[in-house]
Design goal:
Elements lengths: L2 E2 L5 H7 L2 H10 L31 E8 L4 H4 L4 E6 L12 H4 L5 E2 L2 H13 L4 E5 L5 H13 L6 E5 L5 H5 L7 E4 L6 H8 L4 H16 L3 E2 L5 E10 L8 H11 L5 E5 L20 H13 L3 E4 L3
Parallel strand pairs: 1-8, 3-5, 5-6, 6-7, 7-9, 9-10, 10-11
Antiparallel strand pairs: 2-3, 2-4, 8-9
Helix pairs in contact: 2-6, 5-6
């Protein structure tokens, strides 16, 4: 079971000590030679140059709302205050949110408007602010956070990511992010390249997961069972064993902790380009999912197993 604890978001302590402004300055400079993700495009986004993620210097957002469909400790009673950022550092051929991640659905907002979203979701009673696909907009998020904190923002921050991250950038978030919610998508880089367009996913993903765990540890909840700090990992089981589910779970148990909260997802369906790729053009079967669910239990993980 998750531990119960009283909690103050780490960014509030950093802000009180004057350190949040330093974090904002340090990471904002990266936009001039963008290396936020492992692709390290090197473009100057402040001058309108665009790299792989096609993003500029203003945060692009498709929607924000109270979301009741996340993992239970994130939802609580008020919902998870999700902000869906436009574009992505990956190019998953089966992405269920492809209009947002691949086709650029959304619009640019000012930093002040982003900060207002934080405060609005807090006022509506959300349990946290959940940044969905935030990697390419980290500088803008931190700048908005500084504004929101000065106006009374106090909710935990959730970093909801594909798991394709640079450890050097994650270290700048140490003490700022309260809950990491990354994917572990693949155990094989050839498959990662085939389906997500990136040839170094496994190395970067595994290093990122270790860094996230170092920062926040196992999941901790308040006395209402609502997440306040910690790591939750998602794994989507793909057809035909493409996701390397067994290898992923074994690695997590051995290299991080067998007590992790892991959401083992069976909800794959062939979206976006997947219907035209025979190996992943169908849903997963019970015969594919059940052995992975059994391994999840045998290894001792906390978390969630879906029905199929």
């Amino acid at each position: 079971m998750a531990q119960t604890t009283r909690f103050e978001p780490g960014y509030l302590r950093i802000h009180k000590n004057g350190g949040l402004r330093d974090r904002v300055r340090a990471i904002a400079e990266i936009l001039e030679h963008c290396e936020l993700c492992p692709r390290r495009c090197g473009v100057n986004r402040t001058l309108g140059e665009r790299g792989y993620c096609r993003s500029g210097d203003m945060p692009a957002i498709s929607s924000y709302n109270a979301h009741m469909g996340e993992e239970p400790p994130l939802v609580g009673h008020g919902g998870s205050g999700t902000i869906f950022f436009t574009n992505c550092t990956l190019a998953c051929v089966f992405c269920q949110n492809y209009p947002i991640s691949q086709q650029g659905v959304g619009k640019p907002y000012t930093i002040k408007e982003l900060a207002t979203m934080f405060l609005s979701l807090q006022k509506r009673g959300c349990e946290n602010i959940n940044f969905v696909t935030p990697t390419h907009f980290i500088p803008q998020i931190l700048t908005a956070l500084e504004i929101a904190v000065s106006e009374g923002f106090t909710l935990p921050l959730v970093y909801n990511t594909s798991g394709y991250e640079r450890v050097e950038i994650l270290k700048l978030l140490d003490g700022v992010v309260d809950i990491y919610l990354p994917d572990i998508k693949y155990a094989d880089d050839e498959i990662a390249f085939k389906y997500s367009g990136v040839s170094d996913y496994v190395k970067n993903n595994r290093a990122a997961l270790k860094e996230m765990f170092r920062q926040v540890g196992l999941l901790k909840c308040n006395n209402r069972g609502v997440a306040q700090r910690g790591l939750i990992i998602r794994h989507l089981v793909l057809p035909g064993g493409a996701s390397g589910s067994e290898q992923c779970l074994l690695w997590l148990a051995k290299e991080i902790s067998p007590h992790l909260h892991i959401a083992l997802m069976s909800q794959y369906f062939p979206a976006f380009k997947a219907p035209g790729i025979s190996a992943i053009a169908q849903r997963i079967t019970r015969a594919e999912y059940r052995p992975i669910a059994r391994l999840h239990r045998e290894l001792g993980f906390e978390g969630w197993i879906q029905s199929i």
